[in-house]
Design brief:
Elements (H helix, E strand, L loop, with lengths): L5 E5 L3 H10 L6 E5 L5 H7 L4 E5 L5 H12 L8 E6 L15 E5 L3 H20 L9 H11 L4 E9 L1 H8 L1 H21 L4 E6 L2 E7 L3 H17 L4 H6 L1 E5 L5 E5 L2 E8 L8 H15 L6 E4 L5
Parallel strand pairs: 1-2, 1-3, 3-4, 4-5, 11-12
Antiparallel strand pairs: 6-8, 6-11, 7-8, 9-10
Helix pairs in contact: 6-7, 7-8
């Protein structure tokens, strides 16, 4: 867990600024100190810090003005902000009035100080990466997980909902969002019940899970069984009997749209021909095309591991 590399401090107390600087000694980071609000936004726009430290030990008006200005600016509204307070006064501060993320007390404990900085940065990265609809990790975490899986007896499973776009257009975004949340829960539960693994949401109707290769078929079949059962409840008996519903396509023409199903492409990462993450994506695209040949849910595993 590393310390942020670009930190700004707001304090009119030069002695406190020196304490912070000493606490960061030995860390590879750039530290900027400000004692007034003048020019701070311009500086931030030209070289945005990863984290802001504000002084609440003495004159708070400067820190209050800067924090409010930053929180009102959409570009900086999510920047992690840590306050420095006196140990005696921290319980007397009305924290609801201070939109900050954490605080550290004086006298400064260097080890705790560095840990809180690293945790604040890690927390904001998770918030930005996680998909707001499903709460699953997003592309940055997915890429890291795939890289970590390379050469190991694992399988990267790409899940894709077939005919999701017309369903979304016909039945509405609220129903579409519920289908995405539902698949996320089904996938997560199947992976957890199999003994654990990684689950992520690429975006839209694309999902990824990474599991031991020997459990891939069982997990995929479990996901399909639960998904097909739940999805069938979204359609009335007439649609289920005929296997499609009628909707207008992008060309403005009436079309028979098959019911929702899923395609799963399974790529073992211990295959000699899978040498990098981009190859995993390439092979998965080929397999998904095969899986989509059927209107029913199915999975396709790349068995070319020799």
């Amino acid at each position: 867990m590393g310390c942020p590399t670009n930190i700004s401090v707001v304090t009119a107390d030069e002695a406190l600024a020196a304490v912070v600087r000493n606490g960061l000694e030995g860390q590879e980071c750039q530290l900027s100190c400000f004692s007034s609000i003048d020019g701070i936004l311009g500086y931030f726009y030209s070289d945005p810090p990863e984290l802001l430290i504000v002084d609440l030990t003495s004159e708070r008006s400067i820190s209050e003005a800067i924090v409010k200005t930053l929180r009102d600016d959409i570009f900086f509204s999510t920047m992690p902000v840590i306050a420095i307070v006196n140990c005696q006064s921290c319980t007397a501060i009305t924290w609801q009035q201070w939109p900050i993320d954490d605080f550290i007390t004086l006298p400064l404990n260097t080890r705790e100080f560095l840990c809180r900085l690293a945790l604040a940065q890690s927390r904001i990265r998770r918030i930005f990466d996680n998909n707001p609809l499903t709460r699953l990790p997003g592309n940055t975490s997915i890429q890291r997980a795939i890289n970590d899986a390379m050469g190991k007896p694992l399988a990267v499973c790409y899940l894709d909902i077939n005919n999701f776009k017309p369903y979304n257009d016909c039945f509405g975004f609220a129903h579409g969002d519920e289908v995405l949340r539902m698949l996320a829960r089904i996938m997560f539960n199947a992976v957890r019940d199999s003994g654990g693994g990684f689950c992520g949401h690429v975006g839209g109707d694309d999902f990824v899970c990474i599991i031991p290769v020997e459990k891939a078929e069982n997990v995929c079949q479990t996901i399909i069984d639960h998904y097909d059962h739940v999805v069938s409840e979204l359609f009335d008996d007439h649609i289920k009997t005929q296997g499609y519903y009628v909707a207008t396509n992008r060309r403005g023409e009436m079309e028979h749209i098959p019911m929702l199903s899923i395609s799963i492409a399974v790529v073992p990462t211990d295959s000699p021909k899978i040498t990098h993450a981009a190859k995993v994506v390439e092979v998965a695209a080929e397999l998904k095309a095969l899986a989509k040949d059927s209107v029913k849910s199915r999975y396709v595993i790349d068995s070319r591991r020799g």
